[in-house]
Amino acid sequence: MKFLIAFIKRFPRLKYRRHLAAFFLLCAMLVLFGLSCCVRGCLNSCKHYSQDSISASSQPLDSIQQHALWVDSLLSQPHVPIAVRERPSGRFVTRFRTEQIFMDSFPDLNDVQLATAQRLGIPAVADREEASRLRNRLVYVGECPYYLVDKLTYSTPYLVPRAARLLEEICHGFADSLMSRGMPLYRPVVTSLLRTQADVARLRCVNGNASEQSCHQYGTTFDICYNRFVRVIDPADTLTKDVWPGELKALLAEVICDHRQKGTCYVKYEIYQSCFHITAR
Questions:
Q1: d(CA 77, CA 73)
Q2: CA-to-CA separations, 106 to 230, 234, 280, in angstroms, rounded
Q3: Which of 60, 181, 230, 236 has the greatest count of CB atoms below 10 A from its CB?
């Protein structure tokens, strides 16, 4: 301000000296106002940053999300090419032999799977029309070289990307296990995928064992039948006999068990539905 007064006094004959003084005074006020706004904004941003840091540090770590990131990195690796070998002499020895051993190997109950499904899946939807609005978060699951999708009455052919990739990995591993042992190629049958709340209600009318809090409502869960397999017919192969379904069930169980031990999924062995109930982690 003293500089401005001294500058104006140097021009005593200036006709509009008062106007010039007012102009410089206005400029000085605008500069000071701008500086005060900048300082205030910096202080507020620092305050918000410190509050966010304190709140973030006070919140517990989300172990489900952390595990999901690790599973994504594991499943994002490319497939290993399937090796075709001659079948060795003798029968294929099964690892799982009784229903109880299957139940002990896949004990993950619905409440365990439900917590992960709710955290990693889509919100539960009322009907299929509402589910169609969330298809940007889902992928279509149809027939592919590694598995077949059964006629879906109480579900719709969609999964979240993580679950769809897990399904492909399991069935790819099953095909690899068959071909590495010199067995003919079979495809498992997927019997259930995404269910809406209306699908769950209709299913509970015909199946009293169906849970109202179904993991299928979140797009993270699918069922693979263990007593139905579709053989891929090779016209040039007229000598290879069909494989006993018990061997196919045991081999599929080994592949699923390997994935469960890696931590990529939860698995429940369903006796009445004759399927492996699998939720992606």
A1: 7
A2: 24, 34, 14
A3: 181
Classified as helix, coil or strand, 107 is: strand
Q: Is 270 helix (H, G, I), strand (E, B) or coil?
A: strand
Phi and psi torsions of 64, nearest 5°: -65, -45
Encode the chain (281 residues) as per-residue pLDDT tens digits. Answer: 555 556 555 555 545 556 656 666 767 777 777 777 665 655 554 444 344 443 444 455 578 888 888 788 888 877 777 766 665 545 555 556 678 889 999 999 999 999 999 999 999 999 988 888 888 999 999 988 999 999 999 999 999 999 999 999 999 999 999 988 888 899 999 999 999 999 999 999 988 778 888 999 999 999 999 999 999 987 777 667 888 889 999 999 999 999 999 999 999 999 988 999 999 99
Give the alpha-carbon dihedral of 84, 88, 183, 146, to 10 degrees. Answer: -50
- % helix, strand, coil for the chain, step of 5: 50, 15, 35
Retrieve residue 217's tokens.
Answer: 């409502």
Per DSSP, what are the bridge partners of residue 265? Answer: 280
Buried b (16+ CB within 10 A) or exposed e, 81-95: eeeeeeeeeeebeee
At 227, list the tokens: 């007593």
What are 222's two structure tokens?
A: 């699918």
Would you say 224 and 276 are in contact if contact means Cβ atoms under 8 Å apart?
yes
pTM (predicted TM-score): 0.72
Residues 6+ apart with CB under 8 A from 145: 175, 187
